[in-house]
Amino acid sequence: MDIQSEIFNIREQSPMTSTAQEIQSGKLFATAAERIIEQGGHFSDPRHGQVGIELENIVTDNEGRPVNAEERDRFIATAKTIVLESAFPVTLQQELGAAQIEINQGTDALFSLDNIEPGVVLTFFKQIDQFLLESTEHQRMKLLNLGFHPFADIRNVPRTNKPKYDLVPTHHDGNRLASSRTLQSDLNLLNEPDATVAALTNSLQFNISMPDVTTAIRAMNIMFQMTPQILAIGGNAGFAESVDTNWSDFRNQIWDKTHRTAAGQRVFLPEDFILSPEDLFLRMARFPLILEAPNSKAAFDIATGTNWLAAKLKFLCNDDLDINKLLLEFRPLSLQQTPEENAAMFLLTLGRLKLAMETNEPMFDEFDAVRVNGELAQRRGTQATLVTKRFTGSHWENSMVTGQEIRELEIHHASLGLSMTSDGNVPMSRYNAFRSFFEENIGVQNPTERLRAELGSSWETGSDSERREHIRDTLINSGIMR
Q: What's an example of a GO molecular-function annotation for this chain (predicted)?
């Protein structure tokens, strides 16, 4: 059966994808998928390995409450002026939440994988931090460097006034599985959140241009496999509704469960490794596009945009659906608390991926190992016990790691990856430079664990307002909200 017929067959089986609009959108998506698959075997990018960055952040007032959209837009205008005057190569724009901003590179990638330097990366993140702080001072606002807002309301969260930011949450609220309405008990919350809660999440993402489709699919699966280790080390979303959820990082969990429908799991980790572009497109076909698509390119872009897995493969095409570039995004990591941690976690993830690709890291026999690791890492952070892959210098072997072993192992892996030359050699001076950078900027405790210690042990016995004030004051005093 050809790919178009397979897509039609999948979408005919669900009421959510068999409405008149979804039938038309599905046809357009299927046409695009077929066109892209035709090119997959011969596409190549000689300029692959270019790396870009994206940050999400929440703007608050001086009390830590999320600002409204008008205030957020005023902040963006101020920040854009500062960026323009300094000729800094980033752009700012609105995000889903009315208080959210997104910062990413302009049209050109910021770094090259083959010659990336920790000092340059750190300077870049510090410059972002500096112009954001300057903007907050102008507007008398603050920025929250957490993966989730710790005391905002988690229902009917104000959003940016765009149709997609109304239609997409409304669809997921209306079609959410009853079995997924467990977040209130799972996370010790006061209320069950709705799909608008995604507007309170902040991430640190990167994208890298891929040389060809086969390599991109393999790298995507490596990203899935390494996601739990990265989350354990960089967990930074443990508090909501002024309570401690006892999770290290629930950002992906709360997004996933509020967007879980009969079509399956749209967020975080898939059910299995993805074997090919066809496999990816058939998985995407299960889910409604929700938004109206005027043409095949628009349908494909919508399907890609709402494919919220931990690793997202983007086929960047012109209007005729000719592939210009393949970008692979790493998406599950929360924004960190400091520019130093953002730089270090970005490089740790990038180096871990590079080592896996250079040394042909094997996949687990069963994807369930990845999913179990993911659950444990989100809940327990650096206290988790994970079954992972360990590089011995000549091959990879399965290894069970616990606590600080996770951090130590992945710092070693990333340092190897970033210092390894194309012929497999590892200059020790370069390895040591990366290792020292990681050791200095990635703490023994992950960000959530550190914040939990700073908050103390008795604050949760207070009233809602007392808990909120204690969290706010701790965030301000520790520089997490500033």
A: ligase activity, forming carbon-nitrogen bonds
Structural domains of the chain, count: 1
Tokens found for residue 276: 């090919």
First to last CA, the chain: 56
Tell me which residue range forms the domain holding 179: 50-269+310-477
**Residue 245: C-alpha distances to residues 183, 237, 248, 372, 402 (Å):** 10, 9, 8, 19, 22
Please report, as a single letter, which amino acid is at residue 102. E
Helices (H), 140-276: 163-175, 183-186, 213-234, 251-258
How many residues does this entry show for the chain? 482
Domain with residue 247: its CATH number is 3.30.590.20
Let me know if residue 299 belongs to a domain. no
Q: Each residue of 348-367: pLDDT tens digit? A: 999 999 999 999 999 999 99
- CB within 8 Å of 67: residues ≥ 6 apart: 59, 60, 61, 75, 98, 99, 141
Provide the residue type at 2 as one letter: D
User: What sections of 114-212 are H helices per DSSP?
Assistant: 118-139, 163-175, 183-186
Q: How many CB atoms lie within 10 A of CB 464?
A: 12
Rounded Cα distance, 385 and 405, in Å: 9
Q: Which residues of 68-77 are buried (b: 16+ CB within 10 A; e: fewer)?
A: ebebbbbbbe
Q: From its phi and psi, is residue 399 left (phi > 0), alpha (psi between -120 and 50) or beta?
A: beta
pLDDT tens readout for residues 254-283: 999 999 999 999 999 999 999 999 999 999
Q: Does residue 250 contact residue 237 with C-beta atoms inside 8 Å?
A: yes
Given CA atoms 272, 276, 277, 281 in this order, what sign does their dihedral have?
negative
At a CB cut-off of 8 Å and minimum separation 6, what does 375 contact?
Answer: none
pTM > 0.85? yes
Compute the CA torsion angle 452, 458, 464, 468 (nearest 10 deg).
Answer: -40
Q: If residue 57 lies in a helix (H) or strand (E), which one and from where to where?
A: strand 50-60
SS3 state of residue 414: helix
Within-domain flag for 204: yes
Q: Which of 214, 208, 219, 211 is nearest to 363 (CA)?
A: 219
pLDDT, average across residues 100-120 = 91
Beta strand 323-330 with 385-391: parallel, antiparallel or unpaired? unpaired
Q: Is 133 helix (H, G, I), strand (E, B) or coil?
A: helix
Between CA 260 and CA 265 the distance in angstroms is 6
Q: Pairing state of beta strands 243-244 and 239-240? A: antiparallel
Q: Which positions ≥6 away from 272 have C-beta within 8 Å?
A: 367
3 state DSSP class of 206:
strand
Whether 293 maps to a domain, the answer reads no
Coil, helix or strand for 237? strand
| Any domain includes 92 | yes
